[in-house]
Amino acid sequence: MNMRIFIPRDAAAVAVGADEIAVAFEQVAAKHGLPVEITRTGSRGLCWLEPMVEVATAKGRVAYGPVSAEDVASVFESMASNGPHALRLGVADEIPWLKRQTRLTFARCGVIDPRSLEDYRAHGGYKGLERALSLGSDAILAEVTACGLRGRGGAGFPTGIKWKTVAQASANRKFIVCNADEGDSGTFADRMIMEGDPFLVIEGMATAGITVGATKGYIYIRSEYPHAVEAMNAAIVAARRGGYLGDRIGGSTHSFDMEVRVGAGAYVCGEETSLLESLEGRRGLVRAKPPLPAHHGLFGKPTVINNVLSFAAIPFILAEGAKAYADFGMGRSRGTMPIQLAGNIRQGGLFETAFGVTLGELVDDIGGGTFTGRPVRAVQVGGPLGAYFPRALFDTPFDYEAFAARDGLIGHGGIVVFDDSVDMRKQARFAMEFCAIESCGKCTPCRIGSTRGVETIEKIINGERVGENLALVEDLCNTMKFGSLCALGGFTPYPVLSALKHFREDFIPAPTTLQAAE
Amino acid sequence: MTAVFEPSYEPSYEPWNETRGAEIIAEHAGQEGATLVILHALQEAFGYVPEAAIPMVAQALNLSRAEVHGVFTFYHDFRHKPAGRRVLKLCRAEACQAAGGDALAARAEAKLGVSLGSTTADDRVTLEPIYCLGLCATAPSAMLDGRLVGRLDEKRIDALVAEAQR
Question: Which cofactor does the UniProt annotation name (chain A) (predicted)?
Fold first, then answer.
């Protein structure tokens, strides 16, 4: 029997040498004269172990990592002889970091060949759609509502209500739009699932299509993700060929087809109405709401627009039933959240778990603290618009409401860890700078406020009338928070105000002369 | 290193040619909301979007030149002139900042003698910031043309800069 080796093709693995490793394994196998079958998979999400390579054994797939080109020869010998190796991690599924997760959405990611529809089906793919086709629209809506799924892009709006609104709207055309403009730093779950399990996203979107009566879908992927674009395009072709996109999908009477559209480097296009403008071929200017996209969305038609992770949660919910999903979680945050541990972290990666895990568990226990070995000082949760949390708030459970109660947000589930060398003044200034660079310019608080914010924080950094300027920044943040049209201007105050509140000492010059006088 | 794997990602572009430009525009003009699709296709072919192409896109899509110009200038990706021979993008977002990206960006700027957002005098290298490559758990990261590089340190950034300058 051929030796079967699995090497990720995920961009994060490729960025640390997975392609080179794949070539090296082929060469070593040829040298040994052993027939080897190499499958390129997605990533399991244990990013600090990438490139993580696996070999099929009688006991399951055994992992090695992080493998460098120099290690390939010895790793190959260990694989062939089932012998020990310093990089041998044991059976992949038994690695504690993976085992303690609840992988509902990411169950197949890193396991299957993302280019193979057959592999997807062999691992339970399209069971959700098949059940959906037998249920019909009303029953699907009941399931999607009962499971408690809320928009995973960050806003947390109940998916069932959104879908129902579109289902009830009457129009000659309706659209399904997948928001894959994952621009938040510290987040990469959308990218990973598109690269590692693209059929899952297609299945979720097709399910939405048959539910609301839409026959056309678009997935808007940011241009910074060329690997994801390639993976989705390949999967769409394969799904069409397999009868899962196009006319009469899955042998039903429903038609649904979709295409990839690529963004062009505008962060604001992650905001849903800006994304719709961009899809229509215009500048990504945010639209005032109402009307909601569910009534007046793409090309003015009723549109379901959801994040990648929302669509990707759907197949499990329909295959296993709403209760199986809703049984996980806490409060009004039901199911699981693919959390992304990033930045200065020892064990970073994708950790899917039920809502309710605390920030401290995620950062210290699961993440293992910083890779620099210095103490964790601040973590930013939810991307560039998310608040900075100090250690004192590490008891906050991962839950939409719990984070909101502490003036933060979980956003798209990204956690960026900073050690004690961080200068929070710089981080606060960056938040304003980023908003200034990315503002669409439609509303004044965001367009002008962000620039004034940069200038004022600059003055604080230079020690100019610090007290007055701090008050000014706080006032400005309130104007932006309540006066902006969308989350870009509206949430930029979160990182700024949280830095001011929890890390005040960074903004006030140390009172050395005063102490000396006393 | 035993297996040297150095895929050539150095892009090559056609010189601007009106007939070719018109073909590219016509190929995509039938799609709904085609403006970005066409601008991407033009840039892929020519390495930038020549000013002469803007009125052609406008005419093909029955839009005003101002509208197309507005779209073209709104998005960070589109270039109005060719970039350097190689484009080195450094991720400057928070996760890479947390992992020491600031110092590495300064190092690359010093080595190339240009600041982020500009091209070396010999037109060899364009150095640009990028806000998140989604490699946030293997930060800091960069992209040299199409090739991604993670876990950057001084040695790796020096090698990348040297490769870009070659």
Answer: [4Fe-4S] cluster; FMN
Strands ordered across the beta sheet of B147-149: B118-119, B125-130, B86-91, B142-144, B147-149
For B144-157, letters b (16+ CB in 10 Å) and e give: beebbbbbbeeeeb
pTM of the predicted structure, to 2 decimals: 0.96
Nearest residue in chain B measured CA to CA from A278: B36
Q: What are phi and psi of A343, to 5 degrees?
A: 85, -135
The domain covering A117-326 belongs, at the CATH homologous superfamily level, to NADH-ubiquinone oxidoreductase 51kDa subunit (3.40.50.11540)
Give the position of tokens 């794997």. B5
DSSP letters, A352-384, are: EEETT-BHHIIIIIIS-S-SS-SPEEEEEESGG
Question: Per-residue pLDDT averaged across B62-88, rounded?
Answer: 97
Cα atoms found within 13 Å of the Cα of residue B20, Cβ hemisphere only: 13
Q: Nearest chain B Cα to A47, which residue?
A: B137
How crowded is the C-beta side of A145, counted as CA atoms within 13 Å? 12
Alpha-carbon gap, residue A221 to B67, rounded angstroms: 23
pLDDT digits (tens, 9 = 90+) for A191-248: 999 999 999 999 999 999 999 999 999 999 999 999 999 999 999 999 999 999 999 9
How confident is the model over A241-283, as pLDDT tens digits?
A: 999 999 999 999 999 999 999 999 999 999 999 999 999 999 9
Interface test mutation site (partner B, options A38, A72, A77, A185, max chain B beta carbons within 10 A) = A185
Output the CA torsion sign for B25, B28, B32, B38: negative
Its CATH architecture, for the domain A334-419, is: Roll (3.10)
Distance between CA atoms of A356 and A97, rounded to whole angstroms?
A: 17
Report, as ranges of residue numbers, the positions in chain A whose pLDDT lies below 50. Answer: 516-518
Domain ranges within chain A, ordered by starting residue? 3-99, 117-326, 334-419, 424-506
Residues forming beta bridges with residue A37, ordered by sequence position: A4
* Helix or strand holding residue A228 (H, E): helix A226-241
- Count CB neighbours of A334 within 10 A: 20
- Domains delineated in chain B: 18-74 (no CATH), 86-165 (3.40.30.10)
Asked whether the predicted pLDDT for residue B3 surpasses 50, the reply is: no
The sign one gets for the Cα dihedral A193, A51, A119, A229 is: positive
Interface probe with A: pick from B104, B136, B151, most Cβ of A within 10 Å: B136
Q: A511 and A477 in contact (C-beta within 8 Å)?
A: no
Residue B5 has pLDDT above 80, yes or no: no
Residue B115 C-alpha, separation from nearest chain A C-alpha, in angstroms: 17
The verdict on domain A3-99 having CATH code 3.40.50.1470 is no
- Per the document, the length of chain B is 166
Please list the residues that pair with A388 across neighbouring strands. A380
